Fold this sequence. Notes:
This is Oxidoreductase. By secondary structure, the chain is of the alpha/beta class. Helices cover 26% and strands 27% of the residues. The chain is rod-shaped and about 135 Å long.
Amino acid sequence: MNGPAWISGLIRQVGRSGPDVARPRPFRHLTAAERRIWEAYPTGTPVDLRDGKNDDPAEGHTWGRGREVRAEVLAALLLGMGEEEPGQVPGIRLAGAHVVGDLNLSDAAITSRLHLLGCSIPGIISINDARTRGLRLRRCHIGRLRAGRATIDGLLDLDGSTIENGIRLDNAHITGQFRLSDAVVGAPSGPSRGGGNDDLPGWSQPYNQGRAPEPVTQVAVAVWAGGLTVEGGAFLRGLRTTGGLRFIGAHFNSGLYLEGAILGGTDGHAVYADHMQATSAELGSGFTASGTVRLRGARISGVLSFDRAVLKAPGRVLHLSHMQVDELLLLPSSIEGDINLAYSHIGVLFDRPDSYPGHVHLNGTTYESLRGPAVLTDRLSWVRRDPDGYRPQPYEQLAAYYRRIGHESEARRVLLAKQRARRRTLKFPGRLWGRLLDIVVGYGYRPWLAGLWVTLLLAAGTSVFSHWRPHQIGLDESRSFNAFTYTIDLLAPVSVFEQRGAWEPVGWTQWLANCLIVAGWVLATALIAGGTRVLRPSNTS
């Protein structure tokens, strides 16, 4: 988008003819640095204002007037006042400048490039609702960057830069890569609601029809990027922030990479990314978060990695509920806080027993495979740590996993642990009956216990009745007594050998005989009850 040729010619004439020639405002005077930029713009020739002595952009206010460039001059060039030369690619390629004022390019359609290197820009760069080619603002010191709803055709490169008062990228669309590696980003200073009202002049308070103003709260968000779409990779490696990252509903179609990033001063959430979609998300290799990492409802078609991450939060450190992820690597080098995996579907979960220092929410969680050094006792401890108490689904899911990989004995142990955990939630009669089922047959998952009890009772009955023989009831027929078959008849709920009705125990052995009869009924009932538990479809899923 070019301005009239006579304006550009007039501006160049200003540079040659001095102050006596009539010139339009606001460019009545161009400094030497501005004149160099103006003349270099048609061909995109680099302009380097660095002196090799004091080039730290954080000290830009000390550089002197020879390196000052007005933001409105840069905006005028980008908005079409600069001439273009056929066969050349126009643009601003500037290094070591101190840009004075706010660079406002909102709502514009910018076809030329803007590359700034090592510049000091204490004001605001605003490209809200603009459409622009790729932007490179490398190793710059910037007051604030606003790019809400912007479309950037190409790369947004902020590598090594410092942005004091945060970045706005809500609902922006970047067709190339988003680079913020080794950058330093602070949260906006001063109160704000939702992290964004201060971006619209006069909208610091909504219209409330004369009611008292609503309280304004400070939200510590360094990068506000809800609804952001990045077609290329989002590389935020080594990022340092004072404030969190807000990526609600963002799409990272070639992955999100936060290795080595340190997120501090987050006031609650280090990463707030509900319903985020990404092909992969790397939050490991030194990634450090002082606050909750929240990815509720996220969809990650590849790997979500916390390998060698440092995670700490006073309450919930990871909120990963209702998520879908192909592979979750939960292998932090240090972690403090609770973890929520409820209602998430995980393809492969790779973890360690020490990955869960606090409570774990697992109700509704499903997974295809478990990897790592955890053994069955570790997994049982894992499913018991729900702060809401007993939940049957985590046990059923773990048992189903062991059955699927052919470990039937481990599956039975898990289901036995489930029944024992359930028993603690029952009233006294239910707990008593459950305890009896557990002792006798292990709730049906240890049927060999019934055989052991029968063997012990048979041995005791046979020994006792061999020494204290019962009296025969009917003397009109001759019968031979066998202590072993007599004991079996007492234990069986229905007489098998017709010994119980033919012989009458004497003395104290009457109590033993009654105990054996009761024990037989209890064993039979327990076997039936336990068998129905084992054969239920819900336990064989």
